[in-house]
Write a structure and sequence with these properties.
mainly alpha
Length: 39
């Protein structure tokens, strides 16, 4: 499936643990890049 334009995704979820979210946000760009995406 090919796309002509950008695709955006938003994570909307409740954050119970601030440190867990901070760790997630620090690694998210790296994880996206590992799968060929960009942030």
């Amino acid at each position: 499936m090919a796309h002509d334009g950008p695709i955006y995704a938003v994570n909307l979820f409740d954050i119970a643990d601030r440190e867990e979210y901070t760790a997630y946000s620090r690694r998210s760009a790296r994880e996206v890049a590992a799968h060929g995406g960009t942030v």
